[in-house]
Amino acid sequence: MDSVTLPLRIPYILRAGIIITLGIIAWAIAAYIVLSVCPPEQRMLATSLMATSVFCFCALAFLGTRELLMNNLAWRVDNRDWRFWLYLVGSHLSSILLMGVAEVPSESAPYAVLMVVNSASLVVRFSPKYSLSFNMLVAVLFAMQFPQDQWLIFCLCMLMQLVLWSFGLSIVVEISEVRRLRVMGDELRMAQAQIAESERMLERRNIRHNLHDNMGHELATLHMNLQILEQQAGRLELSDDIVAPLERSRDASRKMFAVLDDIVSGLRQVPSAHFYDALTDLVDQATTLQVTTLWDEKVKISDPQCCETLLSVVREFLTNVMKHSEGREVEIRSCYSNGNIELTLRDLAEYTGEFSYGNGLSGVEERIAAMDGRFLVAMSDDNELTWNITLPEASV
């Protein structure tokens, strides 16, 4: 079978750097051509317009990068972002006015257009309807600065803006897809960690049942047989040398019953340290989040069903944060108060959306209610989304 050679795939970060570098080179070429045809008495004003265009472009690049980093590589379309509108209009307006101030001839328009379309890729901040309308308006205003071949210049400007806008849109889509795949990977690893923990609990339960059913049955049979032998030895009036070992064997079987009962009871309970280790393993799988765990030493989780339920709740919360939140920091806090165990899950990012109960939250509420607990979703004083779980000590 012939080997398949995959096409060269350039990482999106490197691709963005290449596009920015090419944009700077293209802008520099256009600036050189514009200044070369600019009348000497207008060069000071032309230089000021160029500086304004550069400043606005850098501000747009900074705002876009800041948006990605603050939102955990989640790009949001926001038609009401007035800062983006301000710098975008400033960048294009200064470049368009520069064409008239520098008196750029029509034959130099194909080069000068590079100064105008340089910010076209940043219009992805807005929805396609606004982006395309804005690009068309820019192309019209740019073409009006030249007395000849206005339709040709308009088409050229519009085409170049569409190409750069498509490039910017493809990068944003890929960044969002990479983030989505990372979230899905974290969800899969958290599910695997919880399945592994459930398998360990199932194994403990099976061992407990096997010990209780099989070994308990054998010990009961042995104890009964020894008791029968002891009674027969008494009726036959056998010597103490024969009866004494039978009595010791029956006492030993009775002690083995007690030891077996202790072992089965111990397997029925989950060590509290085991639950915390399972919680840590689950949290470690959420690589896209920074999770802080503040655990009260008085909180002991030993019931297997409670352990599995709380792990499911934590996984549901982390999944919701990764999918719907703009933040990366999460806090898990537990405390013991008045015979109750309180577990608080908090998304430390400021929540700006509308909250509504879905199937996931309804399922969490039902599982907590089955353990005689209370589940509450609320907003903290800092407008942070918080899940509060309260369980009676007897349930855990």
From TrEMBL:
It catalyses: ATP + protein L-histidine = ADP + protein N-phospho-L-histidine. One of its GO terms (molecular function) is protein dimerization activity. One of its GO terms (cellular component) is membrane. Its EC number is 2.7.13.3. The keyword Repeat does not apply. The keyword Phosphoprotein applies. This is histidine kinase. The chain crosses the membrane at residues 12-35, 44-64, 84-102, 151-173. InterPro entries: HATPase_C_sf, Sensor_HK_TwoCompSys, Sig_transdc_His_kin_sub3_dim/P. PANTHER family: NITRATE/NITRITE SENSOR PROTEIN NARX-RELATED, NITRATE_NITRITE SENSOR PROTEIN NARQ. It comes from the Bacteria. It comes from Thalassolituus maritimus. Keywords: ATP-binding, Kinase, Membrane, Nucleotide-binding, Phosphoprotein, Transferase, Transmembrane, Transmembrane helix, Two-component regulatory system. Pfam families: HisKA_3 (PF07730). Residues 203-269 form the Signal transduction histidine kinase subgroup 3 dimerisation and phosphoacceptor domain.
